[in-house]
Design a protein that fits this description.
CATH topology of the largest domain: D-Maltodextrin-Binding Protein, domain 2
Distance between the termini: 50 Å
Helix content: 40-55%
CATH class of the largest domain: Alpha Beta
Order of helices and strands: HHHEEHEHHEHEHEEEHEHEHEEHE
Structural class: alpha/beta
């Protein structure tokens, strides 16, 4: 069976007339009649009885109409979807990310990306950075966002990575005198309570190193797995925090105009590296490629520098 046969058959069934079917399909009457004759030949059965110059469908023709209508509808849907995939208006996006980005920043970015693309769906899963690497290595997601772990990248042939470096910021309660400064140094934080990540994290190690260069021991009062929860302690004036720009951007989205925390550059610079990772063997869709490019742009917009690709 051919599509032109089914379309001709469907129009005759719906209009009851070869001439009307030809008009609606912008074809000649002989071509419609030939399509029906060839369809009957392919099916080895008669679909219409010819009486008094008109076609009258046999009972089996109704079954074919129902089935062919579903088939033609599916083909039209497929055509629309394929055109949508080409124009980036249709598709599915699967992202696995470390917890900090998953709360406000990444959902906001996906929302903006898909705002005028109603046929794009997405899944955002929050995992530890180690799990992000594992799941991208297993080719389970389109895109992963994780702390930079060099062995996970250099010793892994199943993923590719773009590495970005962010300059950390000092999070300060708006009523704190330090909020008036343009930049914050370790000396400003001498004997001040801090909120930071766990000791094994790259940021905590870099903070320790930065403070040790001027013989200051950081006074850590609060620790958390990721940056955003630390800002609760800063809001309440219980500590100052050193956080990444994604946490700062997330806080601004969350609090909008009702903000109790402000952010200042920290000097000397404490760098924080993030990996944007993709699976090597999972087929890359246009949507995932476009969103990965958007992620890179948004990283840059909040101060990141792209330092390498592997």
């Amino acid at each position: 069976m051919k599509l032109n046969q089914l379309k001709a058959f469907q129009e005759i069934m719906l209009t009851g007339s070869v001439s009307e079917a030809a008009r609606k399909l912008h074809r000649t009457q002989p071509s419609i009649s030939a399509a029906i004759a060839s369809l009957e030949e392919d099916l080895e059965m008669q679909l219409f009885e010819r009486r008094n110059g008109r076609l009258h469908p046999v009972p089996e023709a109704q079954y074919l109409l129902n089935e062919s209508a579903q088939l033609l509808d599916r083909l039209e849907t497929l055509k629309r979807n394929m055109r949508g995939l080409k124009s980036l208006t249709t598709g599915h996006l699967e992202v696995v990310t470390m917890p900090g980005a998953a709360v406000f920043w990444l959902p906001n970015l996906i929302s903006n990306f898909s705002a005028e693309k109603p046929n794009i769906s997405s899944e955002v899963i929050s995992r530890s950075s180690d799990r992000v690497y594992q799941q991208i290595t297993a080719q389970q997601f389109d895109i992963g966002i994780a702390d930079y772990h060099e062995p996970q990248i250099t010793e892994n042939s199943l993923l590719k990575a773009s590495i970005f470096s962010f300059k950390c910021l000092c999070a300060i309660n708006i009523d704190d005198p330090l909020a008036q400064k343009e930049a914050i140094t370790p000396q400003d934080l001498r004997n001040r309570k801090l909120a930071t990540l766990f000791p094994e994290h790259e940021i905590s190690r870099n903070i320790e190193h930065s403070f040790s260069q001027v013989d200051i021991v950081p006074q850590v009062r609060f620790r958390a797995q990721y940056f955003l929860p630390l800002l609760t302690f800063v809001e309440r004036g219980q500590a100052l925090g050193i956080v990444d720009p994604i946490a700062a951007a997330s806080y601004k989205l969350y609090r909008n105009t009702n903000r109790r925390v402000t952010f200042r550059p920290f000097r000397p610079v404490i760098n924080y590296r993030i990996s944007l990772i993709r699976p090597v063997h999972k087929t890359s869709s246009r949507i995932s490629d476009a969103f990965a490019a958007e992620l890179e742009e948004q990283f840059m917009a909040i101060g990141a520098t792209k330092i390498s690709e592997r």
